[in-house]
Amino acid sequence: MKRLSLLIGVLIAIGCNQSPPGGPGATQKQPVTGMADNTFKLDGPMTETSIKQGETKTVTVSISRGKNFDQDVNMTVTEPAPKGITVTPAGGAIRASEKETTLTIEAAKDAALGHHVIKLEGAPSKGGAKTTLDLKIEVKSAS
Fold first, then answer.
1. Cα 94 from Cα 96, distance rounded (Å)
2. Pairing assessment for the beta strands 100-107 and 85-88 based on DSSP bridges
3. Is 58 in a helix, a strand, or coil?
4. Cα(115)–Cα(127) distance, rounded to whole angstroms?
5. Which CATH class is domain 40-140?
6. Mean pLDDT over all residues of the chain?
7. Domain residue ranges of the chain, discontinuous segments joined by +
8. pLDDT, tens digit, 9 for 90 and up, residues 86-132
9. Cβ contact 130:123 at 8 Å
10. Could you tell me the pTM of the whole model?
């Protein structure tokens, strides 16, 4: 019985190592997914940023660059921020040599409470497709 178990284990290991990419029976290579040439993507915090009225916080926005994308990316807030919330720099940029930038979010003492979305747009400085990023924040009472 031990020999049969050992034999089955060896056959499984050999069979698994010789399967073609995509599994048994696959005849074509699977497409490689990734970013299109000369494009970019913006990424913000994975979770909602919590901020109290009267408080200031910083968040990091990073950039993933596709092949041959070596431009600065100009950042702007595309819709008015909720009452009492300021995002600085509203017209900042991620330079071609940088991988990220920092934004400052300030909630005034009378900032609107609740969950909000701040819409940012990234535009290549030399032209090309723009992209957007939703920054989710929650404003809580200072007390």
1. 7
2. antiparallel
3. strand
4. 33
5. mainly beta
6. 82
7. 40-140
8. 988 756 889 999 999 889 999 999 999 999 999 999 999 998 999 99
9. yes
10. 0.69
